[in-house]
Amino acid sequence: MIQFLNVSKRYPGGFDALSNLSLNIDAGEMVFLTGHSGAGKSTLLKLIMLMERATRGQMVVGGQNLNKMPRRQIPFLRRQIGVVFQNHQLLFDRTVFDNVALPLMIAGFEPRDIGRRVRAALDKVGLLSKEKLNPVALSGGEQQRVGIARAVVNKPPLLLADEPTGNLDPELSAEIMKLLQQFNDVGVTVLIASHDLTLIERMGKRKLTLEGGQLVADVPGLGGEAA
Amino acid sequence: MSQESQKALPDALSRGASLKQLSLLNLWRSYCRHHVSSARDSLNRLLRQPLSSLMTCLVVAIALALPQVLSVAVSNIDQLGQSWQGRPSLSVYLHHNVKQPVAEKLLIELEQQESVAEGIYISPSEALQEFEAHSGFADVLGQLERNPLPPLLQLSLVEQLSLEQVQSLQANLQARPEVEQVDVDLQWLQRLQQILALGRTLIWLLSGLLALGVLLIVGNTIRLAIAARKDEILVTKTLGGTNAFVRRPFLYTGLWYGLLGGALALLLTELCLFALAGPVAKLAGSYGSDFLLMGISWFDAGFLLLASSVLGWLGAALAVGRHLAAIEPK
């Protein structure tokens, strides 16, 4: 699903966020990406979504070569990738329902399809009863679940999460992780950047460790699904 | 863990049904739907802040109404000049040595021309008598050794001659050997036409400047709207919204500002005309004229609305082009 070959990213000003990074994540894997802040986790996720362009190296995501992707193709790449943010990035000028419906409206789904899919996603994260509320009225954990519902509502084959539990207490964090794992169970490739090491250990999944923009450890998961 | 998340994934969320299922027809329908919803939402946004929207629309309206009122004024003055042209006449001064029989023969020849309605011959002595009677210089004129006045043919022309036709007739006459000078007593009309032409040029220049103003006003308003909705733009781009998708609501916002501004401009123009109609009718009445102020034609009104909508859209497009490119998810 994700192949990086000797990928480097140098930001203007000369800071090397990633240097000569190679990795391979198969379809259907669930992988944790860890390391200190500044190690390059966020940059790696941004490269996958083409929010940033690699300075050097080859990148293939979902069979598409990102190096040669023209700008106008980028939106269509992003529609194949669900993203969960640490600060969930919900819009507070509309209801929970409309927040979750946004990816479907962007992709051009029929209104009756949108209703069905949004309710299914909200049901999945346990917030169907709150579809008419403004997300501002929800707790931090609930807001993050709305963010997850929005990320999965158009059934992307790849789900990225950038510190999805960063602002949550351990119990809520475990819930969010379980939820993400359930999507992985039905075949979604999941890549989670997190520095919550105890939680990662408990999940028993493949773990990539970044340090100074380089891959320093690649620990396979207990289930043995890692390459 | 909540109970809901223990349930098996509902069908609508299971993998496999990808975005590629959307057919071209689906995409076309969703494209049209987004146009409709963008138009509706942007109008709703304007109506939700009626006062600030009204301010922007009013500025647009005043900028558009100013040249509109001026152009209506110029059209009216033009119309007035055309109707007062009525029966233009030519004074054809002949050379001193042209004798009466020659002059009368020329008069008969001229009267056969289509553009000449009738003419009279005024001999130098007749002219002198008339001048003495009316000018009060009888004593002075009596002392002159010889009559300084030339023989004169006074021609009345038919109605509905254009200024160009009168001028070409004047040139023809001027070219004759017997003729010394031809005066058109419509020179004031010619000058009026020149002033009106100048006025029209000024209106075009003014319109250009004010149109630029409208572009900037709408552009600035859209810039503020973009800044206010930056989060939404970022999220939309992150979720795979194309630039066109992000642009669309703002373009419609500009279109609405233009259209509403244009409609207000029409209203302002009509109000000005309404306020002027009474005094103008009174003035015309005192000259015994039944002149009526011309309003805006349907064509002009349609053109104004179209032009204002295009201006609003263009102002938004310029602002959106400059400011949306700067907003990329990081």
Textual characterization of the structure:
The complex is a heterodimer of chains A (227) and B (330). Chain A is an alpha/beta fold. Chain A has a domain at 2-80 and 156-219: P-loop containing nucleotide triphosphate hydrolases (Rossmann fold, 3-Layer(aba) Sandwich), CATH 3.40.50.300. Chain A has helices at 41-48, 74-78, 96-107, 111-124, 140-152, 170-185, 197-203, and strands spanning 2-10, 16-25, 30-34, 56-61, 64-65, 81-84, 158-162, 189-193, 206-211, 214-219. In chain A, α3 crosses α4 and α5 packs parallel to α6. The model of chain A has no long low-confidence stretch (mean pLDDT 89). Chain B has two domains: 36-83 and 191-324, no CATH class; 89-185, Alpha-Beta Plaits (2-Layer Sandwich). Chain B has ten helices and four strands, in the order ααβαβααβαβαααα. Chain B has helices spanning 24-48, 50-85, 100-111, 124-135, 138-142, 163-174, 187-228, 230-238, 243-286, 298-324, and strands at residues 89-94, 116-122, 152-157, 179-184. A four-stranded antiparallel sheet of chain B has the order 2-3-1-4. Chain B starts with 23 loop residues before the first helix and ends in a 6-residue tail after the last helix. The interface between A and B is large, with 48 and 41 residues.
Assembly form of the protein: heterodimer
Instruction: Please report the distance between the alpha carbons of the first and last residues of chain B.
Output: 33 Å
Count of the separate structural domains of chain B: 2
Low-confidence stretches of chain A: none
**Shape field of chain A:** globular
Query: What are the segments of chain B in which pLDDT stays under 50 over at least 5 consecutive residues?
Result: 1-20
CA gyration radius of chain B, whole angstroms: 35 Å
Give the biggest beta sheet of chain B. Answer: 4 strands, antiparallel
- Kindly provide the radius of gyration of chain A, computed on alpha-carbon positions and rounded to a whole number of angstroms: 17 Å
Report the helical percentage of chain A.
25-40%
Structural class determined from secondary elements of chain A:
alpha/beta
> Using DSSP, what is the number of strands of chain B?
4
Treating each run of at least 4 consecutive H or I residues as one helix, how many helices of chain B? Answer: 10
CATH superfamily of the domain at 2-80 and 156-219 in chain A: P-loop containing nucleotide triphosphate hydrolases
Shape category of chain B: elongated
Helix and strand sequence of chain A: EEEHEEHEHHHEHEHEE
Mean pLDDT of chain A: 89
- Which class best fits the helix and strand makeup of chain B? alpha+beta
CATH architecture of the domain at 2-80 and 156-219 in chain A: 3-Layer(aba) Sandwich
Spatial order of the strands forming the largest sheet of chain B: 2-3-1-4
Strand percentage of chain A, roughly? 25-35%
